Amino acid sequence: MYKTKCDNKLIISGEPEPANITEGCGSLGMFLMKRLLRHGNEVAVTSFDVPAVVLSVIPWFHAFGCLTLINVLCNKLKLISLPKFEEGLFLSCIENYRCTLVFVVPPLMVFLAKHPLVDNYDLSSINILLCGAAPLSKETEALVKKRIGVKHILQGYGMSETTLAMLVQSNARANKSGSVGTLQAGSLAKVVDPESGQLLGPNQPGELHFKGNQIMKGYIGNEKETDATIDKDGWLRTGDIGYYDENGEFFIIDRLKELIKYKGYQVPPAEIEAILLTNPKIKDVGVVGFPDEAAGELPLAFVVKQPNVTLTEDEVRQYVAQRTSPAKRLHGGVRFVSEIPKNVSGKILRRHLRAMLQRPMAKL
């Protein structure tokens, strides 16, 4: 199977093989992948004990949206699908259709936690909020639970390359706040030191590697990238830093390439963002490293203020300083912006934020 140079058609030669062609949402832009569904290879489908009314705004071309649709069909559930996110429409659908299960991404969780419009709608029908596509902080999770009283907020972890979820929380067990759940049946996982390649044990952060029949066969027409992602033993390198605890629950820290290197310390931007989002004056935030000759990189925050509030750079810096270790403080400063650039799955586009560092500062 290969992709022609003149168009996006795929030509299958020899015996036809089942394949799933997925649009990736990573920083490299669109890529095509083929997953060979070997004999005995099954994608885990979540079962529901009671009828559910599902609301989803996740695009179907995204792996999260694709598997959401498969789950709904397999379980014969009612699906309310929105072509795009609109604040009032999203909230009114929950209220009018009494949605019990809502698939969300972290920006939607921030919306539920902080937007004033949420108070105007009855969201009491929601039993489960299932969040994926990007890390959700325990701080944002707590804010949503406190505000709308939802019983279960579940997380999962997966990639387009892994046919979605490798890790998932279950509402049948007590989940630790901030975790992304336990390993799915038929899957293998290990945590590896990204520099030495040494295998790490419980509560030791490192790069997550996965293995199983649901791992993609490779990137179509890109053998070099495939070899860099999947080793000779079939282990897929995720590029994500995380760890598992003594109970087998996994926690995601950040992307390996996004860690800020400050004076030899590795600073996860997501950790600082989670702290800042607990500030009621802050609507949204993104953190990157600002290049510095002496320290390497300085943590810097792009902040979106809530409407009609007064917030200074010093207030923001002090807010973080009071809640973190010295290495994780905003040594690079604060820039106020109108919005944080994100892709369709809700991941912060940090390369866009870094590009903004080259522009003159605007007064907001």
TrEMBL record:
Record keywords, A-Z: ATP-binding, Magnesium, Nucleotide-binding, Peroxisome
Recorded superkingdom: Eukaryota
Molecular function as annotated in GO: ATP binding; CoA-ligase activity
Domain AMP-binding enzyme C-terminal residue range list: 271-347
Gene Ontology CC annotations of this record: peroxisome
Span of domain AMP-dependent synthetase/ligase: 51-219
Localization terms from the record: Peroxisome
Cofactor(s) annotated in UniProt: Mg(2+)
Annotated InterPro entries: AMP-bd_C, AMP-bd_C_sf, AMP-dep_synth/lig_dom
Family (UniProt): Belongs to the ATP-dependent AMP-binding enzyme family.
Name this protein carries in UniProt: Luciferin 4-monooxygenase
